[in-house]
Design brief:
By secondary structure, the chain is mainly alpha-helical. It has four helices and two strands. The protein has a domain of about 70 residues: Helix Hairpins (Orthogonal Bundle). It starts with a strand and ends with a helix. It holds the Pfam family CHCH.
Length: about 140
């Protein structure tokens, strides 16, 4: 299940995804940062909160909620990985909604409503046109 976080969509990888070598190249912003080039997961299996790939999510007003949710997911042993982390992700989302400037929300429901209204409007207009033709 992809979670929407601001303009970025976080998609959680499966075990299989991790077994295939990545073709992504990380460009280090700070060559002096020892964690910069380690990637998201450190050699000891811990999460590298300094990884630029997190886009600064681990800092900021909702950093603690993000770390809690992400850690829970990372260490989850549930069959559906992360299914035991719903509360942490909800807390993170609720925090982010308090800071819309920092974490712009792409409101999926709003989009769905717009498109379903457009779809509803079209057949009604079409049927109205038919009735007018029939009565004239």
């Amino acid at each position: 299940v992809p979670y929407m976080l601001g303009k970025d969509r976080i998609i959680f990888a499966t075990k299989e995804d991790h077994e295939t070598p990545s073709s992504a190249e990380l460009v280090a912003d700070d060559p002096d940062d020892p964690y910069e080039e380690q990637g998201l997961i450190l050699p000891n299996g811990d999460i590298n909160w300094n990884c630029p790939c997190l886009g600064g999510m681990a800092s900021g007003p909702c950093g603690e909620q993000f770390k809690s949710a992400f850690s829970c997911f990372h260490y989850s042993t549930e069959e559906i990985k992360g299914s035991d982390c719903v509360d942490q992700f909800r807390a993170m989302q609720e925090c982010m909604q308090k800071y819309p400037d920092l974490y712009p929300q792409e409101d999926e429901n709003e989009e769905k409503e717009k498109s379903s209204k457009d779809l509803e409007a079209t057949p009604m207009e079409a049927s109205a046109t038919k009735e007018e033709r029939g009565s004239s």
